[in-house]
């Protein structure tokens, strides 16, 4: 559909919420791309060449020019393939809010959830749970329509995909309950709607494998500390 | 100069590198604004109302609508007052790189420098020094012209202002040497050029007071740990 824009390559890992963000954005835009699955224990020479600073996925390579950092890539995709499914709002103030909230998810929600789930020290873990609940409450209050983007998915929804799909898998793996229908009815319903969106649904990892991955991470952090 | 865009208010703290970023951007654009100095030990009701999520400076209020997070504000300023001194490049790929590097400064350089300067544990502090030198080296390699923005100041220069002015003050306060002419000749020269730019120069805090502030911070973190 967007073939005339040249060659698009994506380096990702199936279980990575950050790489999945880019896949969802590309598919919402109808962009054809070649996908390369990385093995993070044995990173490819190309990944290290394209992202020498962070050495992480995702990396998008457009006509030979690499870009890293998922939120940076999402904005690039929106500015490059601008005629189909806007990912950021049009007005400067709304764009700024979308940037604010997508950063908020990465800077506040994700670290809090990780602390609540995988910290060994009980006091720290309880603090993580408290911070997670606070940060989810702030998102709950912010959710005024079906999606953060209104009636369609925008960059905040894509960033928050972690909360819709990865968080419930973490909860199952480590025996934690944060995102419940009772506590956060709007966010809970949003999570169901978001993960059932056809393009999102086909770009999510296999749930069982993800739960297994988080169980192993939980076990290894608890073993390492003994 | 830009009076027809309505009322612009900025809530900041004189010593904050993040609030200073916004002042520099507004003045590069020739935007008239009203400045409110906050006392972080006794935050104003307005600051808490305008930034309930982070409760931090800077907050920009444009025609009654508040925005927080300095890099988000810089992009908003660039998109709103677009006819004078671009702060982001015009092409999507260059814009993405500018976003990448300004985030890199906040996510990598600043935490490493803070760790090197103010961590009490010697091993952690040495690790911070190593990470600081690595992250400065990456910026040194990235600096290909007079400024990160080429011949004029862009968002990366404004974000890196911390390295040009605050870092040397921290070095003096805690007896550390990171940004030297010998190790990083391009970055060192950039720091001198950047802080001597007339608009930057008039929007920097008083050096002596800043050194005093960091000396007190260093002393209090060392006392607290005993």
Task: Characterise this structure.
2 copies of one chain form a homodimer. With 226 residues, chain A is of the alpha+beta class. Helices cover 58% and strands 8% of the residues of chain A. Chain A folds into 2 domains: 78 residues, Glutaredoxin (3-Layer(aba) Sandwich); 133 residues, Glutathione S-transferase Yfyf (Class Pi), Chain A, domain 2 (Up-down Bundle). The first copy, chain A, has a 4-stranded mixed β-sheet, with helices on one face. In chain A, a hairpin with a 2-residue loop joins β3 and β4. In chain A, α1 packs parallel to α3 and α6 crosses α7. The radius of gyration of chain A is 18 Å and the shape is globular.
Weakly predicted, low-confidence segments of chain A: none
What is the subunit organization of this protein?
A: homodimer
Biggest interface and its residues per chain?
A-B, 22 and 22 residues
Q: Spatial order of the strands in the main sheet of chain A?
A: 2-1-3-4
Helix content of chain A: 55-70%
CATH architecture of the largest domain in chain A: Up-down Bundle
Reading the helices and strands of chain A in chain order gives: EHEHEEHHHHHHH
Q: What number of structural domains do the residues of chain A give?
A: 2
